Amino acid sequence: MVAPAPEPAPPAGYPSAPPVYYAPGYAPAYGPAQAPPGYYGIEAAPAEYSQPTYQALQGRQPGPGSHEHEGFYLHLGTGIGAGGASYKERIGGNVSSVRTRGIALTFDVGIGGRVVENFILHGNLTLTFYDVNKKVDGVEDNGYDAINSTLWMIGAGGTYYVMPHNLYFTLVLGTGGFTESRDYETFGLREVQINSSAGFASSLAIGKEWWVGRGEWGIGAAIKGMLAVSPISISNFDTTVTGHSVTLEFSATLN
Q: Does residue 1 sit in helix, strand or coil?
């Protein structure tokens, strides 16, 4: 059997295929040679800018302390509802029962801090304003141009959050009082102010908050009830006034 003739050598001076050089550690197992990062002036991308890291950053979770109830606490609330007061008053020599009712606007500020997980202690200042109608022994009293009342409370309380639903319960106990302004312009008297002494006051709120973004702020809504019982003197008649309100409160809380 005759062996095949060997391929002729290239003519003298014919350029042969240039050798392929690989940088150490960059020789591919398959396929054509690839230039290593940094080769021919191309800089390699830093590891922190790799695609998986970028995707992780886009879906990142809140950092430590975010969406948790800890540290400093600031609660700002305002609400609208109904309220009024009940007391005794001497009218024409007789002692009558007086009841006032009307629309109530409330404003509340609470400042404090976390004691244990999800439990906050704080001090509160609450003001409730009424534009009311007055009934004496169940009969409407229209002898005034306007009757406005104010219920105030200064106290200390606690708020407990039920997590992860972010429901909360707030109870505040303290001192409070009642002020009533009676407008008598029809009878030539501009205004008569009635002020109670400081007495007992409390409030209870049940609500829910929603976190805002990735920060420490939350917005919330709650049903809030307030009660104050204090001594008062009306036309030299000493009695006790009970003021109350039930409001729907909207709030912003930093915690």
A: coil
> Is the distance from CB of 97 to CB of 135 less than 8 angstroms?
no
Q: Report the predicted TM-score, pTM, of the whole model to 2 decimal places.
A: 0.69
Tens-place pLDDT, residues 40-91:
555 555 555 555 544 444 444 554 455 777 789 999 999 999 999 999 988 7
Burial class of 55 by CB neighbour count within 10 A (0 to 12, 13 to 18, 19+): exposed
Residues forming a β-bridge with 129: 105, 150
Distances in Å between the alpha carbon of 176 and those of 78, 84, 124?
18, 15, 11
Return all residues near 167 (Cβ < 8 A) that are at least 6 apart: 161, 206, 207, 208
Specify the pairing of strand 94-116 against strand 139-141. Answer: unpaired
Which residues are CB-neighbours of 13 under 8 A, at least 6 positions away? none
CA distances from 139 to 28, 143, 187, 239, 252 (A): 99, 12, 21, 20, 41
CB 136 within 8 A of CB 142: no
Question: Which DSSP string corresponds to 170-194?
Answer: EEEEEEEEEEEEEEEGGGTEEEEEE
Spacing of C-alpha 14 from chain mean position: 83
Amino acid of residue 68: E
Sign of CA dihedral 133, 194, 180, 226: negative
